[in-house]
Specification:
- The structure holds 3 protein chains of 3 kinds.
- By secondary structure, chain A is mostly helical.
- Chain A has 11 helices and 2 strands.
- Chain A has a two-stranded antiparallel ribbon.
- Chain A starts with a helix and ends in a 7-residue tail after the last helix.
- Chain B is flat.
- By secondary structure, chain C is α+β, with helices and mostly antiparallel strands.
- Helix content of chain C is 30%, strand content 20%.
- The chains are: A mainly alpha, B mainly alpha, C alpha+beta.
- Chains in contact: A-B, A-C, B-C.
- Chains A and B meet through helix 1, helix 5, helix 6, helix 7 and helix 9 of A and helix 1, helix 10, helix 11, helix 14 and helix 16 of B.
Chain lengths: 328, 424, 571
């Protein structure tokens, strides 16, 4: 078991490094560079050259790469041009926000998915079952940014101005202005209010997958002998479902979490953009447009590391949980 | 036993749109389905050998309205498909007569394609219905192949059949669009007078910021989006199947290396890749399709690998090995055809996925070049005036949703139909 | 699963515990900031005691401005001059030596007076004595001298280096006479004070020792700026917001502290989200809505649209180095074949004025004479093209020249700006009518910049762009033939008359004398048509009615921020 783990971790390191390297060369290949967007009338090429030199962009590419690599191995990911701060600081600022959003979306989608999937399995073939499937698939089929915009218009603008509901949600940001003047309880409520729309936009799309997985898993478990035994013992349906079947059905779901994490990070770019959520996806996107090389490469490095870690976690969990796989 | 180690079989691979996943991963659970299949549609499903088709009455009805007799005995799926095709094509001939004539005269390939579709649709629907009615009460079926079983299981699944009809309809409409669309999709009808018109009889879906008819753009956009979906998935399925089969069969070092490579592609930040590629080259349809195809194949690879790993130990493969067939032959001729079931499912789901991703790319500004319409760019174009002109984004958005929904329903239906069957 | 919920709640709680600075504010780990910020806090606390808020109900409240873009280098006036940042330097956090009144004439601001030498080779500024940096240090002539040396030093990379073309650059150009008197040397040229309206003065006591090349990366700009203007920097959360508080120590002679207690600038990229936030009263001011959104803002009872004709113009630059665009007649024909009025009417919804040169219609140098304009005249365009040798020789609807080459031009633009895309689309249809084929090409922003700025390649026929002008107009970098290798000389113009006019105009110090030259210049541009100028856009803002006294004009949206106040009834 530990051998398996160690081998996977060792394998992951060159993977992440390889990805970072490819990103490095790829982003330098793209035409344009960070100095261009600062151009104004009258600026001569000389000034541009100076700027490039000060950023180290006039050296040959492989020299730049080696420099980056050397620094990176000592934990120095360089300085972001567009933020004027060390890359690690910048990423460190954005990462928790992304995690918060992705984490919430994961929780919501799993919770909803598990509940709906279980109900579907228990009431298999009923109208509820097919109805739920269609509704979930409906959301699954939507482009996430469109869903986000629709949600904003519905639950923020219309809810407040047109339908005059008592509850409506803010359309952007993580906290309100004047957050620091709020009481502790009010702060929590504020943060949650700002989380609702972005989380829904991400989670609704994923719920379908979780629900179907759960449904299938429950159906499989329900046919097993131990469930039949429970029924034969005369246990009430509820106990059978919740106490016996559900626990076993949940096992493979756990690995789904590992699969969804990379999706959440990449899918979050749209959500972060629309909701003005200061997350990593958007940071990397802006950085690419501005050719902020250190930030792009550093960000991609961490992104890849997180994805690889998530996959690793998924595989390990699966191995832990299913004794048939232990052979590694 | 299936090797869940590659249980990552959950085909991730969503750049941007962030979907997918659940499809492939379902395989394990899906296989647990009991043999009775979904059996949703209890009443009226299945063949009705003889009986309800009064031969002559049925034939007459079939000659005039193909598909109606089938509907009358409860075979909704096949019947409505035939009927819709028939009436649709007739409508084209009647309501768009001049266009049909013009198309016949012009040499443009898409006009010819449209005409061919109309002809094929008419003949096909009519002939099928005729033969089907004639066959009623006739043949016995001796032995039932796996394929038949699968088809029947699929046919019992109402939603899946509905999805299939929708998809068929979409592709059909995409083919006959030059005859059907009321306006040229790029024609500006008068910037000062026709901009942002709401829904009306003349413009059932309104006009956009460029005074272009939205309905026409939607129809032409269907072609682009459906084509991109189809081709991109084609690319990804081909590459993925090959890689997965080779990795699964050969095992050992080849397997490790290939799977490492798959991991790398999955973990790669797609955004960087997309933006950089599009910055380097112009965002043409070809490029977008290629990029989408090339980023989606790892999912298929994993699924195929899992399948192959389990198939590898079966007798027919061992027999092939004993017979001395080359690895290449075994992979291509024996393993892949048998591993196709989950691939088909993944492909169907993948098309839906790709269409959504294409919309996402437009959002980033990396979509199809204007003025060519595609659903994704239409949704994005409408974003600038979402409140004032809601119809610009809504209709393409709904089109995407329903199309992808249909693909997903079909994919689900296929999975349910194919998996338990192929298990023996 | 239960554990995950608990973890998230803990994380939320942890994040909820903020300090005095707003939540999420990147607490700067940089030693420079850690020294500077406490000094600011201390001085501000003392100032609040010493200058209590006057008794006027307008004082108080927080105003939130929402805009699409971040302020990339913040308050570092030496390295950045994009519109948003420059506005904050001029009106919010820093001070400039002079500012403009409603007639766009210079008046004292940080400089309480100045004298110009009779031969206009030097100007002596007398600095106010009652202005303090937000950490307590007085602002004096040394700061001005430091700023001047820094921005004229090529190593710094000050973006608008044209400002100093006719100044004596570097340490030789500035002399500190005493603590509050500074002399700047220049060669006589027009509107030389405009540079001092635009550049914020930077603190020498904090940045004097910083090497100019590293100024761009210095944390001062985005993490701990220290200004001397009406608003004090409080915090900056990257990609989210900037927070400023009122400066109680702002000189009473200039109005004292602003009415607002606090001013927040929020960066929200998506325009639908911005509109929603305005209409749901989460932000008080929405900067630059799209022309299509303006209607919703006007209809909403709680918001109004404030508009003014701005200094940004949209144009298509033509590469006259390319054979089919080398003939000025072709370029004029293109403009004649484009219905620019209709485009402004339709695409800008009328919020703009057709432009014929780089001179805004409200500018004193503007000449409304029709000879300076190229009217929409498709017939005339066809005649002109015929005359230039372009005829449709093969009947395909597109003109060819004598060699058979088709008159087909590609116009590039970048994604993300719907209006520019629409412009090109409209043009495409209109030009097809006169026999010119237009191809649209979308190119990613940074890539496009590379293609147009590189003097070696200049890989474009035409591209769509917007530029904003200062009050001092100087097109030499754009159109002068001797500067055609510079990055911004896109058009590749080589016209003797224009060269001569540009040189004379840059030296003309007297407006009266300059006006006929400007008139001649505009006519010359009309004949040369290096660009097809489209329009000067109206700048707009959606303002919630609780934010009062918001006056905006061509000086900028923030020109009046000291006098903005929140309606006491709406607080």
């Amino acid at each position: 078991m530990t051998g398996y783990l160690v081998r996977r971790v060792l394998g992951a390191v060159p993977l992440v490094l390889g990805i970072a390297t490819i990103v490095f060369f790829l982003v330098h290949l793209a035409p344009g560079d960070p100095t261009l967007y600062m151009l104004r009338p009258g600026m001569s090429t000389e000034v541009l050259e100076r700027m490039r030199a000060s950023l180290g962009l006039d050296r040959p590419l492989h020299v730049q790469y080696l420099k980056w690599l050397g620094a990176m191995l000592t934990g120095d990911f360089g300085y972001s041009y567009s933020h004027s701060r060390p890359v690690l600081d910048v990423l460190g600022g954005f990462l928790p926000n992304t995690l918060l959003l992705s984490g919430s979306a994961l929780i919501v989608s799993f919770f909803l998915g598990i509940v709906i999937g279980t109900v579907q399995a228990v009431r298999q073939h009923s109208l509820l079952d097919s109805g739920a499937s269609v509704v979930l698939l409906f959301f699954y089929s939507m482009p996430s940014f469109w869903l986000a915009l629709m949600l904003i218009l519905a639950l923020s603008l219309f809810a407040r101005n047109v339908w005059e509901w008592p509850i409506w949600f803010p359309a952007s940001g993580m906290v309100s202005t004047g957050y620091e003047d709020l009481s502790f309880g009010a702060r929590i409520r504020d943060r949650i209010a700002h989380l609702v729309l972005p989380t829904l936009s991400l989670a609704l799309v994923l719920t379908a997958g979780v629900a179907r997985y759960m449904r299938g898993s429950m159906l499989e478990v329900v046919r097993q002998d131990f469930v039949r035994t429970a029924h034969a013992k005369g246990l009430p349906e509820r106990t059978v479902v919740f106490k016996h079947a559900l626990r076993n059905a949940l096992i493979p779901i756990v690995t789904l979490g590992g699969l969804y994490i990379p999706l959440l990070f990449s899918g979050a770019v749209f959500i972060e953009y629309i909701f003005a959520w200061p997350g990593m996806g958007r940071a990397i996107y802006d950085a690419i447009l501005m050719r902020d090389y250190p930030l792009v490469v550093g960000g991609s490095f961490f992104f890849a590391a997180m994805v690889v870690a998530a996959n690793l976690l998924a595989d390990v969990l699966y191995a832990v949980v299913d004794p048939r796989i232990r052979h590694g | 036993m299936v090797e869940p180690g590659a249980a990552g079989a959950g085909a991730p691979g969503g750049a941007g749109g962030g979907h997918d996943g659940a499809g492939g991963g379902q395989d394990e659970a899906g296989r647990g389905h009991d043999g009775a299949g979904r059996g949703r549609d209890g009443a009226g499903g299945g063949h009705d050998p003889g009986g309800a088709h009064h031969s002559r009455g049925g034939r007459f009805l079939s000659a005039v309205l193909p598909g109606l007799p089938q509907i009358m005995v409860g075979r909704m799926g096949a019947g409505s498909a035939a009927l819709l095709t028939w009436t649709g094509m007739l409508w084209i001939l009647v309501a768009r007569g001049e266009r049909v004539v013009a198309a016949a005269r012009s040499g443009a390939w898409d006009d010819r394609l449209a005409l061919a579709t109309v002809v094929v649709g008419l003949l096909g629907a009519w002939l099928w219905s005729w033969r089907d009615v004639g066959r009623a009460g006739g043949e016995e079926e001796i032995g039932v192949s796996q394929w038949d079983l699968a088809v029947r299981a699929f046919a019992r699944n109402r939603t899946a059949v509905a999805g299939l009809i929708v998809i068929g309809g979409l592709y059909g409409i995409a083919l006959v669009t030059p005859l059907v669309a009321p306006h040229d999709p790029n024609e500006q009808l008068g910037l000062l007078t026709h901009r942002y018109l709401g829904l009306s009889a003349a413009h059932p879906l309104g006009t956009d910021h460029f005074a272009r008819d939205v309905l026409s753009r939607l129809l032409y956009g269907a072609r682009i989006s459906l084509a991109i979906g189809f081709v991109a998935v084609g690319i990804s399925v081909t590459i993925g199947t090959l890689v997965g089969a080779v990795a699964g069969y050969l095992g050992g070092i080849a397997d490790s290396v290939l799977m490492r490579f798959v991991d790398m592609v999955i973990s790669f930040p797609r955004l960087v890749l997309l933006i950089t590629i599009i910055a380097l080259f112009e965002p043409s349809i070809f490029l977008i399709t290629a990029v989408l195809g090339l980023t989606l194949w790892p999912g298929t690879a994993r699924i195929v690998r899992a399948e192959v790993l389990s198939l590898r130990e079966r007798e027919f493969v061992q027999a092939a090995v004993a017979l001395g067939y080359s690895k290449r032959r075994i992979i291509l001729k024996h393993l892949i055809p048998n591993a196709l079931a989950p691939v088909i499912v993944a492909a169907t789901l993948g098309i839906g996925n790709t269409i959504v991703l294409e919309a996402g790319l437009s959002f980033l500004g990396l979509g199809v070049q204007p003025p060519t319409p595609s659903w994704g760019t239409m949704v994005d174009d409408g974003r600038a005036n979402l409140l004032g002109a809601w119809w610009l984004s809504t209709f393409p958005g709904l089109a995407i949703v329903f199309t992808v929904l249909s693909f997903n329903l079909v994919g689900d239906g296929l999975r349910d139909a194919l998996d338990p069957r192929m298990r023996t | 699963m239960r554990r995950m919920v608990v973890l998230v709640v803990i994380a939320a709680l942890g994040a909820a515990c903020g300090g005095d600075r707003p939540a999420g504010a990147a607490a700067s780990s940089d030693p420079f900031c850690q020294e500077v910020l406490p000094a600011v806090d201390a001085f501000m606390a003392e100032a609040r005691d010493r200058y209590p808020t006057p008794d006027d109900e307008r004082y108080g409240g927080t105003a939130v401005v929402g805009a699409g873009a971040e302020l990339p280098f913040g308050m570092n006036a030496a390295v950045v001059q994009d519109y948003g940042s420059a506005q904050h330097h001029q009106f919010v956090n820093l001070m400039t030596l002079v500012d403009y009144d409603e007639q766009f004439d210079p008046r004292p601001y940080l400089a309480e007076s100045w004298e110009v030498a009779p031969d206009t080779t030097s100007v002596t500024f007398h600095i106010r004595r009652d202005v303090f940096w937000h950490d307590g240090e007085p602002t004096d002539a040394h700061d001005v001298a430091f700023t001047y040396r820094t921005v004229t030093d090529p190593a710094t990379g000050f973006p608008n280096s044209t400002y100093w073309d006719h100044y004596v650059k570097g340490p030789d150009g500035v002399e500190v006479v005493d603590d509050f008197t500074v002399v700047i040397r220049l060669r006589p040229h027009s509107e030389f004070l405009d540079a001092w309206r635009a550049v914020g003065i930077m603190p020498e006591h904090l940045l004097g020792d910083v090497a100019p090349e590293t100024l761009r990366q210095h944390p001062f700009g985005t993490q701990c700026p220290v200004g001397n203007g009406p608003f004090v920097f409080v915090s900056h959360t990257p990609q989210q917001q900037w927070v400023f508080d009122a400066n109680p120590a702002f000189p009473a002679a200039l109005g004292g502290r602003p009415f607002l207690d606090r001013y927040v600038y929020r960066a929200i990229p998506d325009q639908t989200t911005l509109l929603t936030e305005l209409l749901t009263e989460n932000i008080d001011l929405y900067l630059q809505p799209t022309p299509d959104q303006a209607e919703s803002i006007i209809e909403n009872p709680d918001t109004e649209l404030v508009r003014f004709l701005g200094r940004d113009y949209v144009f298509i630059a033509w590469n006259s180095r390319r054979p089919h665009l080398a003939d000025a007649r072709v370029r004029r024909a293109i403009t004649m074949g484009t219905n620019r009025e209709e485009i402004v009417e339709v695409i800008q919804r009328g919020y703009g004025t057709v432009a014929n040169s780089t001179i805004p219609p409200f500018h004193w140098a503007f000449d409304p004479d029709p000879a300076t304009a190229v009217a929409y005249d498709p017939e005339g365009a066809r005649a002109l093209l015929d005359e230039a040798g372009w005829r449709d020789r093969d009947g395909d609807g597109v003109r060819e020249n004598a060699d058979g080459a088709a008159l087909s031009i590609s116009i590039k633009y970048h994604p993300g700006n719907q209006r520019r895309q629409d412009m090109v689309g409209a043009m495409q249809a209109q030009l097809a009518d006169v026999g010119i084929e237009v191809r649209q090409q979308v190119v990613e922003w940074n890539t496009l910049l590379g293609q147009i700025m590189d003097p070696e390649t200049r890989d474009f026929d035409g591209f769509v762009m917007g530029l904003s002008v200062d009050f001092r107009l100087d097109d030499a970098g754009l159109f002068h033939s001797e500067r055609s290798e510079e990055p911004l000389a896109w058009a590749g113009t080589s016209n003797r008359q224009i060269d001569r006019l540009l040189e004379e105009l840059s030296r003309a110090t007297d407006r009266e004398a300059a006006m006929p030259l400007w008139a001649e210049y505009q006519k010359a541009i009309a004949r040369e048509q290096p660009y097809t100028f489209f329009y000067f856009a109206e700048r707009m803002s959606g303002v919630n009615e609780r934010l009062q006294d918001v006056i905006m004009d061509a000086r900028g949206e923030w020109v009046n921020i000291r006098n903005w106040y929140i309606d006491p009834a709406a607080r």
